[in-house]
Amino acid sequence: MYATTDTLATTPATQGGRSRWLALYTLCAGMLMIVLDVTVVNVALPAIQDDLGFTSSSLAWVVNGYMIAFGGLLLLAGRLGDLLGRRNVFVGGLTVFTIASVFCGLAQTQEVLVIARFVQGAGGALTAAVILGMIVTLFPEPREQAKAIGVYAFVASAGGSIGLLAGGVLTQAINWHWIFFVNLPIGALTAVLAIRLIEKDKGLGLGRGTDVPGAVLITAALMVGVFTIVKPAAEEGWTAPRTLVLALMTLILLAGFIVREATAANPLVPLRIFRSRNLTGANLIQALSASGMFGIFFLGSLYLQRVLGYDALEIGLAFLPTTVIMGLLSVRYSEKLVMRFGPRRPLIAGLVLIVAGLALFTQAPVGGTYVVHVLPVLVLLGLGAGVCFPALMGLSMADVKPEDAGLASGLVGTTAQVGAALGLAVLATLSATRTAGLDAAGKAPLEALTSGYHLSFAVAAVIVAAAVVIACTLMRPAKQPVEVADDSEDLALEAA
After folding, report:
1. What angle do CA 16, 26, 5 make, to 5 degrees?
2. I want to staple 121 with a disulfide (CB 3.0 to 4.6 A). Which of 59, 70, 202, 404 is the partner?
3. Does residue 421 contact residue 71 with C-beta atoms inside 8 Å?
């Protein structure tokens, strides 16, 4: 179940009610800034390409540079939070991210932008990796913790669609530089509020877990793995020589990491943490659901743009129903569902709704309309994500010891990021291959393009269906679901 006061007794959870909720909103503001940056850049890529002269292949590094650093450093960043203090790592990450954002906005050459994006990804990893661990520390009481995790889950999962809208507005109203400059006031304010509102935790100290070889091995493995997914696998194919060599290198580094962690006196990732069925299962589900959802946000945007003719701003507005539904469920109702039924049943129900939405998207035709063929899909996805992701976040931190909270938080982010990269690469490759094959067979261009998207939507549904199977078989049900009164107060709104 969720963390209790006893399990978090060694960490600061003594703040008053109102200040704890303000601290939560501060943490979520930091997370929103990180999540927005993933999709806000996608909308601005054509403008960046025209301004700085990127080729089509080199333009991918504006996204890949961020993803490789972010995905590769999340696990290490989570452990650093346990050792150095989570607030210190959070504020430090915000500082790095904000300064790098300024350099991104000022960039006048391709090299400066790509390097700044890599540094921005590193700052994002430091910021995002410790947030969930800080939330379960601030809210040890199960009901409040469920509500707080609901707020966080909404920000983490809905931020991508908000980024599409924000990117379209900023790029069309001003220019692409402002998608980065806007991070300066937000980052600075969030860092100041974090210092004022979040109590400083001491951390275990570097002497308790300075596993340098382990840190090098896992960071190298994740970076090489993410690079393999987003570059050679996506561009040259999964059986290309370079893809296979890099994949083998990733496996060797992972094997070395596991051996190191099994024998180290103070391992970076104690293997005992995976004895928890809920933690292990939640991370598997996180990877699979992120694979399906992230790929569909990307390919769904392409369907709206290339098939239905939407511009950047219209795409952002199109995804708003998903964001609104997720927000309503995550913030107001997910806590009641979790407390009444336990986290397992809402998790399964939400995943089933996501599968239904993805399956329905396979029926969107060339001459489709938004209300008939797109809106029902987005409603199902919003309902599913709003119900399942808060429960999943809670389960991922179940039974986690206080000294491992940062590690577990970083692990959740790592599986989501790697799952998203893998899902995007697989789905985009399948879509492009199907489209190319149909083009060669003489199919009309829009029909070939739509058929490629349909294949990706169907595969995404199968991937999330696998997450349903894991949730049904591996996840441990809640022991004592709690009945929630109909007139229960909205603690977050009341506290604010």
Report:
1. 40
2. 70
3. yes
Task: Give Cα 255 to chain centroid, integer Å.
Answer: 25
Distance CA 190, CA 143 (A): 26
- pLDDT above 80: residue 195: yes
267-308: pLDDT as tens digits? 777 788 787 788 888 889 988 988 888 777 778 877 888 888
Inter-residue contact 206 to 82 (CB < 8 Å): no
The mean pLDDT of 99-113, rounded to a whole number, is: 92
Average pLDDT for the chain: 79
- How deeply is 496 buried, as exposed, middle or buried, from its count of CB atoms within 10 A (0-12, 13-18, 19+)? exposed
Query: How far is residue 476's CA from residue 482's CA, in Å, rounded to a whole number?
Result: 16
Domain boundary among 265, 289, 309: 265
Cβ-contact 96, 126 below 8 angstroms: yes
Q: Tens digits of per-residue pLDDT, 42-51?
A: 777 777 878 8
Does residue 213 contact residue 262 with C-beta atoms inside 8 Å?
no
In a domain, 283, yes or no: yes
CATH of the domain at 81: 1.20.1250.20
| Phi-psi label, residue 2: left if phi above 0, alpha if psi -120 to 50, beta otherwise | beta
What pTM was estimated for this model as a whole? 0.72
pLDDT exceeds 50 at position 481: no
Range of the domain at 382: 17-210+266-481
Band of residue 157 on the pLDDT scale cut at 50, 70, 90 = low
Cβ–Cβ < 8 Å for 218, 79? no
Q: Are residues 232 and 274 in the same domain?
A: no
- Residue count of the chain: 496
Give the pLDDT of residue 480.
43
Which H or E run includes 132?
Answer: helix 131-138
398's tokens:
């179940």
d(CA 449, CA 459): 16
Cα(470)–Cα(227) distance, rounded to whole angstroms? 27
Q: Nearest Cα to 281, choosing from 4, 134, 477?
A: 477
Residues 223 and 165 in one domain: no
Give Dmax (Cα) for the chain: 68
Task: Check residue 380 and report its DSSP letter.
Answer: H
Q: How far apart are CA 16 and CA 260, in angstroms?
A: 42
- C-alpha pair distances (Å), 101 with each of 121, 282, 417: 10, 32, 20
